[in-house]
Amino acid sequence: MKKEQLLSISTFGELKKAGYKTRSIKDELRGNLIKLLEDRKNGFAGIIGFEDSVIPELETAILSKHNILLLGLRGQAKTRIARMMVHLLDEYIPYVTGSELSDDPYNPISWFARNELKEKGDHTAISWLHRDERYTEKLATPDVTVADLVGDVDPIKAATLRLPYSDERVIHYGLISRSHRGIFVINELPDLQARIQVSLFNILQEADIQIRGFKLRLPLDIQFIFTANPEDYTNRGSIVTPLKDRIESQILTHYPKTLAISRLITEQEAKLDPEQKKIGIADLMKDLIEQVAFEARASEFIDKKSGVSARLTISAFENMVSAAERRLILNRESTGSVRIGDLLGIVPAITGKIELVYEGELEGPAKVASNLIGKAIKTQLLNYFPDPEKGKKKKEKNPYGQIIHWFGEGHRLELAEGLSFEEYDRALNQVPSLKALVEKSFPGANHEDTLLFMEFVLHGLAEYSLLSKHHLDKKFEFGDMFKSLFNAELGNEDELDMDKY
Q1: Structural class in CATH, domain 255-384
Q2: Which of 34, 323, 472, 483 is 20 to 30 A from 462, alpha carbon to alpha carbon?
Q3: Where are the domains of the chain?
Q4: What pTM did the predictor assign?
Q5: Does domain 3-252 have CATH number 3.20.20.140?
Q6: What is the tens place of the pLDDT at every residue in 407-460?
């Protein structure tokens, strides 16, 4: 039946005459998923990196008509997966007009709907509920009560209607009850107090609820999805065993396994202004942003139980582009591209999204963030240029030999953060053979990318301790490593701080 014909139905009699049959939400999800699978369509488009792991397990759970627990560290798309399940629902479903619980006219569960159908029969008014209105999400916090989730007796209703508290008509329904025929998500389930978790037992299995000691048969039709962070699961709270036993499928999520997948996620989720999309962003800079997250997940300074959210790379990407945009605006330049120096702009995006262990706290969040950027540069250098470590043993074959020798003669190079393109070009071309090295590795690179790679080589050599690098007065200063160490021995503290940003 076409959508227009469906929505024109306004009474229960017309609904029956049209031959419309309702089905439970889990049958609905299962049936619509089967159609998508048969048509080889992706029901979870936009969820990247889970195609061979989480998504197949999720589809299996839906086919089994299970309630689901998504277990994983922060920033692993758990809530997004839950929200996307809405697209597996029918676009519209009928319900008894005026019903608080969106009652199925074929199977009413509230007093109001039962009474309407009893009194009016086929003339009972029918309305249509869109699938977007069938999703409810609740963040579990310690102050959540049974009344919030299930419901409570409304004394004003009882007094006004002159009814006893045992009468279901005096109940003020909670979020779960109002989610009848919909998807209900509880985020961070372990944070829910144990006594509140216990209140979910009967709803999940026995289809009845208890309010203020009064038992009420209320066969709610709900697809439950729970999310939990293993850190919370072990430290701040836990899922009580009987509740966990009633959640039929537990699915483990994970972080992107490769840099390429991580890049796809960042590019999909990053929100750039149309003006910012005119700024050139080389693949190198995209790789460096993702590498920072990979280095963070392996860092001894960061709490691995807490994890490093995918939101870090998204925010860092946005900050990097904004740092480049700010430079272009100040220099009155209409076009330009991102530089290595613009990575300084991502430090605030990192510090707010990492949980440090004791050693990390001693270092300080800004220092840890700067170290992560340095490690990312060091790791990615090997994907673009020869390994500097190999050149240390045979200096005559060292592709970086002339560059290092130039600095060894006492030359220094300053790269201020806000250099115009001409100043940036002029500064980098002071270093002999630097451009030749880049052109040999990337003969087809345009002028801007060539300059980017030239700057990248200098930062990379500093990370391999072949050059000194300091960040002072909003500028990078590159120099000879041995002279820097000699000055440090004489008591120059600034020269001693090799990782200072």
Answers
A1: mainly alpha
A2: 323
A3: 3-252, 255-384, 387-501
A4: 0.86
A5: no
A6: 999 999 999 989 999 999 999 999 999 999 999 999 999 999 999 999 999 999
